[in-house]
Automatic annotation (TrEMBL):
InterPro entries: Nudix_hydrolase, NUDIX_hydrolase-like_dom_sf, NUDIX_hydrolase_CS, NUDIX_hydrolase_dom
A GO term, aspect molecular function: hydrolase activity
Family matches, as PANTHER family: 8-OXO-DGTP DIPHOSPHATASE-RELATED, GDP-MANNOSE MANNOSYL HYDROLASE
Cofactor: Mg(2+)
Similarity annotation: Belongs to the Nudix hydrolase family.
UniProt KW Membrane keyword: no
Protein name: 8-oxo-dGTP diphosphatase
């Protein structure tokens, strides 16, 4: 199982996302957890490495498992922990090797290309301000074929 953290960094009705070159999708800054890290430590480290911003008091808002058909272990099952942060220090980096950093207006989030699972999570976290517990079953093309969503408002 792969364990990943990511974070929706918000400022002035915008959210910071990375445009990833692989699919042309926008993604939240984040990545794989390292040994001996807590999920919060991983989120803080990953956001800093990719953006130059040091997030403060990130709130865990989503825990999701993703089962990917056709993938070989350990990439067949992922656990993703998504945080939201409204406070940060530092300066945004000019270059990120993971993709192009961009502040996206909150009302544009549903209109930009994202991974299907991210679109679901964005909707609950940014529009409904709900905590999400989810399971996604995905096909070989990373499209959702089944989902179970529990929310907490």
């Amino acid at each position: 199982m792969q364990r990943v953290t990511n974070c929706l960094v918000r400022q002035d009705n915008k959210v910071l996302l990375l445009k990833k070159p692989r699919h042309g999708w926008y993604a939240m800054p984040g990545g794989k957890m390292e040994d001996q890290e807590s999920i919060a430590q991983a989120a803080i480290r990953e956001v800093y490495e990719e953006t130059g911003l040091k997030i403060e008091q990130p709130k865990l808002m989503s825990v999701a498992t993703m089962n990917k058909a056709g993938a070989l272990p350990p990439k067949d099952e992922w656990m993703m922990f998504t945080f939201v942060a409204d406070k940060f220090t530092g300066e945004l980096v000019d270059f990120c090797r993971e993709g192009e950093l961009e502040w996206i207006a909150l009302d544009e989030i549903g209109k930009i290309p994202t991974a299907p699972t991210d679109a679901v999570i964005h909707d609950y976290l940014l529009k409904q301000n709900a905590r999400v517990y989810a399971r996604f079953d995905m096909d070989e093309n990373e499209q959702i074929i089944n989902q179970v969503i529990d929310i907490e408002k």
